[in-house]
Design a protein that fits this description.
Blueprint (H helix, E strand, L loop, with lengths): L14 H4 L4 H35 L1 E6 L5 E2 L2 E2 H10 L4 E6 L2 H12 L12 E7 L6 H11 L4 E3 L2 H43 L1 H9 L4 H42 L17 H31 L3
Antiparallel strand pairs: 1-5, 1-6, 2-3, 4-5
Helix pairs in contact: 2-6, 2-8, 2-9, 3-5, 6-9, 8-9
Amino acid sequence: MARSLRPARADDLGLRRALSDRLLPLLVAAMTFLAALALAGAMAAAGLAEHWRTGAASMLTVQVPMPEAPAVGGTRAEVVTHALGDTLGIATFRRLSAAEIATLLKPWLGEDPGHLSLPLPAMFEVRLSGDPFDATGAAARLARAAPGTLVERNGAWLTRLADLVRSLRACAALALLVVAFVASAVVAVATRAGLAARRDAIEIVHGLGATDGMIASQFAERVMMLAVAGALLGVLLVLPVLLGLASLAAPFATADAQPLQPAQLLRALPPMLWAELVSLPLVAALIGWATAQATVRGWLGRLP
């Protein structure tokens, strides 16, 4: 009869006073904020790297020194043009104008490279079709048509880019582990503080027959609710930051290089990132519940 009259959400141990609903949720919110930034950073780096890798892997640059010098079949630039047109695996190519070459050389030679009286080479921007392409054979063929012709691919840069992405992912994983460890430590400290604050009441109910599991469950449920509340707050706080960063990064990931419109902001974040953001409160709940359970059971095990 007495059990039936007990409120469904009775706070037998006074945990609402022992475990504050202010400090712990704020700390968990901060950890969630950092975890979301780490996840978003790793995903953004991987996405941009894939975008750049796809574009760079399908392009190469052909440089022809002394393009107007005579060669068999025309000038050196003309014979290279004919050779490129006959090479399998090339979708399109075009010769860069003098103004474009001057723009490329501007950081090193100034506004007008022509004032240095240097013979500027002809440069071709080549886009591959995706079919099998023999880079070594093409380079040899172009060199025979116009000796000194250089074919440059972005293999070295792609390798460095892949190494950079792997490093960023490793750093993000390490950051997540640190955040999880700090969050677990914060929960453990808060739980120990609650145990110390309610020590007398816990010893009384424990002596009256309450099991370790019952006491640990009450602490774990309270901590879990506070952790979920903090994680939800952290997700809400990080969303404007992520949407702002996505808007800034959009011109680097799209061909038209246009900023996102307000209506496109919510679609700017990839679905996988949305799923990870939704999972953060669940992970926080699991960490809070497991840490509280372990802390309380360990504390109870040392009672006389």
